[in-house]
Specification:
Number of domains of chain C: 2
CATH architecture of the domain at 102-329 in chain A: Orthogonal Bundle
Largest sheet of chain C: none
Structural class of chain C: mainly alpha
Chains: A mainly alpha (about 325), B alpha+beta (about 375), C mainly alpha (about 280)
Radius of gyration of chain C: 24 Å
CATH class of the largest domain in chain C: Mainly Alpha
CATH class of the domain at 102-329 in chain A: Mainly Alpha
Radius of gyration of chain A: 29 Å
Order of helices and strands of chain C: HHHHHHHHHHHHH
Number of strands of chain A: 0
Distance between the termini of chain C: 33 Å
CATH architecture of the largest domain in chain C: Orthogonal Bundle
Strand content of chain A: under 5%
Helix content of chain C: over 70%
CATH superfamily of the domain at 102-329 in chain A: MetI-like
Oligomer: heterotrimer
Chain lengths: ~325, ~375, ~280
């Protein structure tokens, strides 16, 4: 359906039509002048003058109402004591921030976020690049394989967590049985309960879902490298490794940076799979930053403390965005 | 039907000054060609007339009315774009009738006008097709149809032939010329192609760096170029420029090249010149012929040339030789010259030669 | 030909084995959890804990689907998800297209406005959702369809805007200019010329907005409860289970992943643009 829409205005093999000789033009005489179109109403004139601002208005107002206003609101909340039980919201200064900063669980969750997202993204990157390299050249069945490989991108992380829970959780999951058969010795890993296996489980789920992200972007980058570079290298008798270092990597550089940045910014939000797979537990062992703030706000109902923490987290990510994304997307005016 | 008067027009894009003060009066029914190298501001000027760009300074009048604040739609002009800009999602008939529909014209009248425009342009069988099903020439006719169906006050053309192959370009150029002869509406045409400019224009406006370098009838610009820029831009092959100095002796004048003294025709009015002034002598290839007489005619200078390079084109051959160290090209009859290295007597028609000041590059 | 042949042969030899192994491994890795989920969804409860596991149930059953949809209110979640995702998609594609056109053609607000919209995409949702939760409770939008529709519209807007921004930038503007000269207002040139031409891009942007809404969990978890809950939040019911509802969870997962996968695979031509906010052309 989309394919049809996309090509509608472009390709159409009508070469026979193009060859029909053109008739000569007759003497051209003037038709009655149609003149200028009817005058615009005052309203239409005003709308036309401010057209560009009218077009951005709905989106901008929505974002202001549901993103900027809440952010400002939460800034206020983070300086007061906002509690459903206690009436009156006293100003408490930086107390909420202090509580977060000095909470060992908060620091632990931030550390875990960094580790989990770092390791996941690294694995996704390497695996995605390898798969992309195998998929650059056309081969029979490539289209079907492509369609299968991207499937995880369209699945809710909740379901991804659910799927891996079904595979890993004892006693139901078949993973330990398969490993026992493969290794020839009894395997009884508590995938969702024992360190370090619960981290492995979370990383596997993340890798499963997001390797295709790396793969798709890197593949696009690889296919954009002019093939004549490779042909020239081949004529020069350069080996595959040298080709990879000398041609592929430098050309893929910007694309790699883009894929890594985008992925990392999403990875540090990790929440859904943890919510489903481990519930942050056992204890606080799988608390990520998002999960920690969620529990502070919505199970302990320390809303002010949670907003304070989320502001700190926000500033942290905003720095990354400002430094990396802006450069990557080259936001330049026409 | 309208004249166009442009006064003191400037257009800036941020720090870039695209149009730097243009004064131009285009008479009703005139075919004006804006020509110049890319980046000279000709397209910007045209788009400012259409209202697609806002001017930074100055006024534009169409039919005696200042239209600076008019939307493009209210200017009653039509424009043919370089890529024709046909609406891909509409049939040819819809494309042609689109402007009328925007004017809320009753449907039967729209259909009548579209049919008549299509008949005149010989594209009636194409009315039901979509732009993607048309050849380049057919698209161009539809684009013109979209204009004539409205009979606008002015036709604007933005390099309409540059996407066509050479043969079709010649053909369509002829059609545009005929269109103007038939309907005599004011037309403003932008191109970087000097042949289009020469063949189509009633008046050429030659632009350079956002300013008008020279304007006038094509032959006027061709024969009396105001500067080396104009002289070099018009005419193919290009005019040859020879550096020299002016030698004035009483009422006679000559140009001294390194090893030759070329007398100028007596009637030639040179103003504000000084003896020894550095000049450039401009010679077009057609000003040089092979000598067939025993003595050079009045006003010609004979030179014994050794041909360096020969480019035959069939009936004519372009022969390059060195005159006082500088290369000069002569357009000779094909049978007048046979091979490079040949020694020939060449007559230079000094009556038609152009002389420019070497520093200002303006004509003297 | 002779000169080219050896080079080709060398390439053929060096690639395939590694290629097949890697691709094969990765395909199994991708498909295995999906298969196991499907297997679980049609497996009778008696087969849950056998050793060895039942790789394919001898007597497939649909009881888990029935239970997931009705007992666990999966059907209500599905309907809510449809209503909310579709509404948010339409709004996001509409407002996104409007804004993107203005940015692309009129450079509205310069680079700051476009970057500001983009930056919204990278804000951690936890920073937004806490105050939104408080505001929604205050104005009565908590646990309403409208509330989540608005939230999803805003949360998908950056992607819609940027995808369409890149799309319009890639479209020649001469057709819209022709329309302006032909007698259109700016709105008419946009609506009657630019929008029809951008239709494939708008559809693609809408598809990605829909998938984003359909799979979203965090906002729904916090902003809804018993009324406007979406499909992904239904999975809360299966957390911490000890053996009872594997089939139901799997069945519900299968039901909910079918629409988004189908749409995603259909729109895969636009996938690269979707994932990179239009920065990379696929």
């Amino acid at each position: 359906m989309l394919r049809a829409l996309g090509s509608q205005h472009l390709a159409e093999p009508l070469s026979s039509l193009l060859d029909t000789p053109m008739q000569p033009t007759a003497t051209i005489h003037r038709l009655k002048a149609a003149g200028a179109p009817p005058r615009l109403s005052a309203f239409a004139q005003r709308a036309d003058r401010h057209f560009k601002w009218l077009l951005v208005a709905p989106a901008v107002l929505l974002i202001l109402a549901l993103s900027i206003y809440p952010l400002l609101f939460s800034l206020v909340v983070s300086f007061i004591n906002y509690d459903f039980q206690v009436p009156g919201h006293a100003f408490v200064g930086l107390k909420n921030f202090e509580r977060v900063v000095f909470d060992p669980v908060a620091r632990w969750s931030l550390l875990l976020t960094a580790w989990l997202s770092g390791i996941s993204v690294a694995i996704e990157f390497v695996l995605g690049l390898l798969v992309a390299l195998t998929m650059v050249r056309s081969f029979p069945g490539r289209g079907v394989i492509m369609s299968i490989l991207i499937v995880p991108l369209f699945i809710s992380p909740v379901i991804v967590g659910q799927a891996w829970t079904l595979l890993l959780q004892r006693p139901f999951g078949p993973t330990n049985y398969i490993l026992t058969q493969l290794l020839g010795q009894e395997v009884t890993i508590g995938w969702m309960t024992e360190r370090p296996w619960l981290y492995v489980s979370l990383i596997i789920a993340d890798v499963w879902q997001w390797t295709p992200f790396m793969f798709v972007i890197l593949l696009a980058g690889l296919t954009a490298i002019p093939p004549n570079l490779y042909e020239a290298a081949e004529l020069d008798g350069v080996n595959a490794w040298q080709v990879f270092w000398a041609i592929t990597l430098p050309h893929l550089g910007p694309m790699m940076l883009l894929a890594l940045t985008f992925r990392l910014l999403d990875a540090i939000r990790m929440f859904d799979t943890i919510f489903i797979m481990t519930g942050g537990g056992p204890g606080t062992q799988t608390y990520t930053a998002s999960y920690y703030l969620y529990t502070v706000g919505f199970t302990q109902f320390h809303l002010s403390q949670a907003t304070a923490g989320s502001w700190l987290f926000l500033i942290f990510t905003a720095l990354i965005v400002a430094l990396l994304v802006r450069r990557l997307l080259k936001v330049d005016p026409v | 039907m309208a004249e166009v008067r442009i006064t003191g027009l400037h257009k800036r894009y941020g720090a870039f000054h695209a149009v730097r003060g243009i004064d131009l009066h285009i008479r009703d029914g005139e075919f004006t060609v804006l020509v110049g190298p890319s980046g000279c501001g000709k397209s910007t000027l045209l788009r400012t007339i259409a209202g697609l760009e806002e001017s930074s300074q100055g006024t534009i009048e169409i039919g005696g009315e200042v239209v600076n604040d008019f939307r493009p739609r209210d200017r009653d002009v039509a424009m043919v774009f370089q890529d024709y800009a046909l609406y891909p999602h509409m049939s040819v008939a819809k494309n042609i009738g689109f402007g009328l529909k925007a004017r809320k014209m009753p449907k039967p009248e729209v259909e009548m006008r579209v049919a008549e425009a299509a008949r005149m342009l010989g594209i009636t069988p194409l009315l039901g097709r979509f732009p993607r099903q048309l050849s380049g020439g057919q698209r161009q006719r539809v684009a013109i149809g979209r204009a004539i169906v409205r009979n606008p006050r002015i036709f604007l053309f933005d390099e309409p032939l540059s996407n066509l192959d050479a043969q079709l370009r010649d053909e369509m150029r002829g059609e545009i010329k005929r269109l103007h002869q038939d309907i005599a509406t004011t037309m403003i045409y932008v191109t970087h192609d000097q042949i289009e400019a020469m063949t189509l224009a009633d008046r050429i406006v030659l632009m350079r760096d956002g300013l008008i370098e020279q304007q006038g009838a094509p032959l006027e610009l061709f024969e009396r170029p105001a500067s080396t820029f104009v002289a070099g831009f018009l005419g193919s092959p290009r005019m040859s420029f020879l550096p020299g100095t002016l030698a004035l002796e009483g009422s006679t004048a000559a140009i001294r090249l390194a090893d030759a003294l070329l007398p100028l025709a007596p009637g030639r009015g040179l103003q504000d010149v000084a003896d020894g002034q550095k000049v450039l002598l401009g010679l077009r290839p057609e000003h040089l012929t092979r000598a067939h007489t025993a003595t050079p005619a009045q006003g010609t200078f004979r030179y014994e040339a050794t041909i360096d390079l020969l480019q035959p084109t069939g009936s004519r051959s372009y022969a390059t030789f060195r005159l006082a160290g500088a290369p000069v090209m002569a357009e000779l009859q094909a049978h007048d010259v046979s091979r490079p290295g040949e020694k020939l007597a060449i007559d230079i028609n000094m009556k038609r030669a152009s002389i420019f000041d070497a520093t200002t590059e303006r004509a003297l | 030909m002779a000169a080219v042949a050896p080079a080709r042969r060398r390439k053929r030899r060096s690639l395939p084995i590694g290629r097949i192994l890697l691709l094969g491994f990765f395909l199994v890795f991708v498909l295995w959890p999906l298969y196991w989920m499907f297997n679980t969804s049609i497996k009778p409860s008696d087969d849950y804990l056998t050793v060895p596991p039942v790789w394919f149930p001898a007597e497939p059953t649909l009881v888990h689907y029935e239970a997931a949809l009705f007992t666990y209110r999966g059907l209500d979640g599905l309907i809510n998800s449809l209503i909310i995702s579709l509404s948010a998609t339409v709004l996001s594609a509409l407002f996104g297209t409007l804004m993107a056109y203005s940015l692309a053609r009129y450079n509205t607000g310069g680079r700051h406005l476009s970057f500001w919209v983009l930056s919204q995409r990278f804000l951690p949702p936890i920073g937004i959702v806490l105050p939104v939760f408080l505001i929604y409770r205050g104005v009565g939008l908590y646990d309403t369809h409208i509330g989540l529709i608005i939230a999803y519209t805003v949360f998908t807007l950056p992607v819609s805007v940027w995808m369409m921004f890149a799309y319009f930038r890639g479209m020649p503007k001469s057709m819209e200019e022709a329309a302006l000269v032909d007698g259109c207002t700016r709105w008419e040139a946009f609506w009657r010329v630019a929008v029809p031409l951008a239709a494939p891009g708008i559809v693609a942007a809408a598809v990605f907005a829909f998938i984003a809404c359909w799979t979203e969990f965090f906002f729904a978890l916090i902003l809804t409860s018993r009324t406007a809950f979406t499909l992904p939040t239904v999975f809360r019911a299966f957390i911490g289970f000890q053996g009872a509802q594997y089939g139901e969870a799997a069945a519900l997962a299968i039901v909910s992943l079918v629409p988004s996968i189908a749409l995603g695979v259909l729109a895969q031509r636009h996938l690269v643009r979707g994932l990179t906010l239009g920065a990379v052309r696929g």
